[in-house]
Design goal:
Layout lengths: L1 E5 L9 H11 L3 E3 L6 H6 L3 E6 L14 H18 L3 E4 L9 H22 L2 E5 L15 H11 L4 E6 H7 L3 H8 L3 E6 L16 H10 L5 E4 L7 H11 L4
Parallel strand pairs: 1-2, 1-8, 2-3, 3-4, 4-5, 5-6, 6-7, 7-8
Helix pairs in contact: 1-9, 3-4, 4-5, 7-8
């Protein structure tokens, strides 16, 4: 499986050219969530831009019908950019509940995605709705249980609308990571990693055992990307090397 690095975790901590060079040396093949001024540098290095934000913002998302027109315009514009730079995935967000029942949130998110799914299908870009935890990092976020996102994907019924399964966030909310992957892998377009607790290095101080998780992902037939989205407490390059090795499955 191909591995990439989420840019924001290292922005301001490592000079960009060094980060790109070290990533290639370790074996990473791409980056995610890269600021647009850096896109050409990434491509010139022979690396892939794997994801880009589909719309803003996390808390004002698809579950509120007042956002639908804005999100549709933003997604279509970003789909066009994704085609130009060969970015396969745009990340999407449910938005915060703000008292909205789950069924209403599902209904509105489905309605929003259905407005854009045909264009995504036409252009060959996948819209990945991200699961986030509402306990620690994103209070009140609505898509915080896998069953919620699975229902959305089933109702939209598009090959270009799937889930970004963030293992760190899912562990905080539900755990049962490997069973969930096996049950719903057909609805997952992309994976993110991080240690828990703390969202730090993938090492022996945290509770997720990534070699077993990666083995389970590979056994589903997944051939996509694994995005490293942890914030290292120690040396960033050393942490990236350890993470790469732990997530490499022979």
């Amino acid at each position: 499986m191909k591995q990439d690095i989420c840019w924001w975790c290292y922005q301001g901590r490592i000079e960009p050219k060094r980060l790109i060079a070290e990533a290639k040396r370790i074996g990473y093949e791409g980056f995610e969530l890269v600021p647009e001024p850096m896109w050409d540098m990434i491509k010139e290095a022979g690396l892939k831009i794997v994801t880009h934000g589909g719309h803003g913002t996390i808390d004002n998302g698809m579950n509120d019908p007042r956002n639908h027109s804005r999100i549709e315009d933003e997604l279509k514009a970003n789909i066009d950019k994704a085609v130009q730079y060969e970015i396969p995935i745009l990340i999407c967000f449910s938005g915060n509940r703000r008292g909205r029942p789950d069924e209403e949130g599902i209904e509105q998110t489905v309605a929003c995605l259905k407005r854009v799914a045909p264009y995504a299908e036409q252009k060959g870009v996948t819209l990945a709705l991200e699961i986030l935890n509402s306990k620690v990092d994103h209070r009140d976020y609505q898509f915080d249980k896998m069953s919620w996102g699975v229902r959305v994907v089933e109702l939209v019924n598009s090959p270009r609308v799937k889930i970004l399964y963030d293992i760190y966030h899912a562990q905080i909310m539900e755990g049962d990571i490997i069973r969930t992957i096996r049950a719903h892998h057909d609805k997952i377009a992309h994976y993110h990693t991080a240690g828990n607790p703390g969202r730090n290095e993938i090492d022996d101080t945290q509770e997720l055992y990534y070699p077993a998780i990666m083995k389970a992902i590979k056994e589903t037939g997944y051939t996509g990307w694994i995005g490293q989205e942890f914030v290292p407490k120690g040396d960033p390059i050393a942490a990236l090397k350890v993470a790469f090795e732990r997530c490499s499955v022979g």
